[in-house]
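Researcher: Quick test of sequence recovery. Tokens follow.
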């Protein structure tokens, strides 16, 4: 495919940093593009973002030579809607997955992968979380969409997942078969920091009991979500010390980071001549005791859930730390621009080249974050949310029926209630007018229904109607927020 469209931006970027040959009229080879999303990785557990222990050497190395955005806000605090925003550059209320997790599908919007595929890239995705299976429609544009999930989650046998070694291993095998001259767009999704926190045996104990400010023993909740206790799906043996769980969480991150490093190195080897664009983020964070919420996500749009790592390295980009704010919706426009491809139609985000050039993002920018029943607007040091109890698919109820509040970051680094931020509230009112109809996900694959049946979550086959109601099969998968 032609490389003409990218020459201008790449020359511009080259002028900002290391020299790249940009002779007018000369066609430029496409860079390889690697997008890494790590599930449930809160920004402040990455060393480059201030975590005291060096548990993320691969991410840190990327940040040291790339651009680190200090205030990156997830579009959602749930897996499927956040990834849909990454792939479409639309906020949650602007795509058909909405704030639902795993039971709605993407419909009618162009995607990042389609853009790369249409430009002649080899495209592949390797995912590790059941709610990202191809039935939710994020497979569009990927020639390979590897969603084989061989492992049962420890405490919820009806959830299937895959550990980093296997997901990354498949990605490495795929990459090894691609000719060096062929540009690739590769999406790697790693699930490991998602609870329950069960790193492989050889990674256990490397961090130990990480000191949290909360040291009192916790009780066990009777549900998979709730306050002031350990959610059922997270319980490990008879452990009740929150520091034990924080330590295991950090070890999962350390394990995932190891495989991140392997894949980054392989992509860089593959695209050596042409250069590589690499962007790493997380779909959302995790509560580790904030406001009494332990070891879960999706329950609100709070900062520990919304703030994610966002690190970008590309040919010609100088190392920098940028305060932000930036969003998941900026990822597709940025990657597409760095590869020199035509813009994604209707993108809500920004290609961040101007921000990178200026070393800063305009302070007046509002970033939106959603979960089921709550929408928020972030600006630097300020978080304003509306909702709290009303399901987001009941259009119109959210603003009228529930609370609104603003919370600001103090000089001591704590979030404290403040006067209502009228600018953020106005922005939210406008944002909440958007309402894309949700589209139900397709039926589950027969083998996935068989998995549930084998585990006793569905009745035996002979009791099923001839055309199984896909919603019956979905129920166990979508019932819990924390995924
Ligand atoms: Zn997730």
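Model:
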């Amino acid at each position: 495919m032609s490389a003409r469209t990218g020459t201008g931006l790449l020359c511009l970027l080259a002028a900002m940093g290391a020299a790249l040959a940009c002779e007018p009229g000369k066609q430029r080879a496409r860079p390889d593009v690697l997008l890494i999303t790590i599930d449930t990785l809160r920004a402040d557990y990455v060393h480059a973002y201030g975590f005291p222990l060096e548990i993320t050497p691969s991410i840190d190395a990327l940040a040291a030579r790339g651009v680190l955005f200090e205030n990156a806000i997830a579009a959602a605090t749930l897996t499927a809607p956040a990834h849909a925003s990454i792939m479409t550059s639309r906020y949650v209320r602007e795509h058909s997955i909405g704030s639902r997790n795993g039971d709605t599908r993407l419909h009618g919007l162009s995607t990042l992968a389609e853009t790369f595929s249409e430009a002649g890239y080899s495209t592949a995705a390797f995912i590790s979380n059941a709610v990202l299976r191809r039935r939710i429609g994020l497979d569009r544009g990927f020639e390979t969409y590897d969603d084989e999930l061989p492992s049962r989650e420890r405490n919820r046998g009806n959830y299937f997942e895959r550990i980093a070694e296997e997901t990354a291993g498949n990605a490495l095998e795929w990459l090894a078969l691609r000719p060096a001259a062929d540009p690739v767009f590769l999406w790697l999704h790693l699930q490991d920091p998602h609870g329950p926190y069960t790193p492989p045996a050889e990674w256990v104990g490397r961090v130990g009991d990480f000191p949290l400010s909360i040291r009192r023993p916790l009780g066990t909740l009777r549900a998979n979500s709730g306050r002031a206790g350990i959610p059922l799906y997270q319980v490990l043996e008879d452990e009740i010390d929150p520091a034990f769980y924080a330590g295991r969480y950090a070890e999962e991150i350390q394990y995932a980071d190891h495989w991140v490093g392997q894949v980054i190195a392989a992509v860089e080897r593959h695209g050596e001549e042409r250069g590589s664009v690499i962007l790493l983020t997380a779909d959302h964070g995790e509560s580790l005791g904030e406001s009494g919420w332990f070891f879960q996500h999706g329950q609100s749009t709070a900062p520990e859930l919304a703030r994610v790592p966002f690190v970008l390295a590309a040919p010609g980009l100088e190392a920098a730390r940028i305060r932000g704010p930036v969003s998941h919706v900026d990822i597709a426009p940025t990657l597409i621009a760095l590869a020199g491809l035509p813009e994604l139609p209707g993108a809500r985000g920004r290609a961040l080249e101007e921000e990178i050039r200026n070393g800063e993002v305009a302070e007046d920018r509002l970033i939106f974050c959603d979960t089921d029943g709550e929408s928020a607007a972030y600006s630097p040091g300020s978080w304003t949310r509306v909702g709290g109890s009303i399901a987001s698919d009941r259009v119109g109820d959210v603003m009228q029926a529930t609370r609104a509040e603003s919370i600001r970051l103090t000089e001591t680094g704590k979030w404290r209630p403040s006067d209502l931020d009228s600018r953020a509230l106005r922005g939210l009112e406008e944002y909440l007018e958007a309402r894309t109809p949700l589209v139900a996900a397709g039926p589950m694959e027969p083998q996935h229904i068989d998995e549930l049946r084998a585990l006793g979550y569905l009745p035996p086959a002979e009791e099923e109607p001839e055309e199984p109601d896909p919603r019956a099969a979905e129920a166990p998968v979508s019932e819990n927020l924390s995924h």
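The mean pLDDT is 85.
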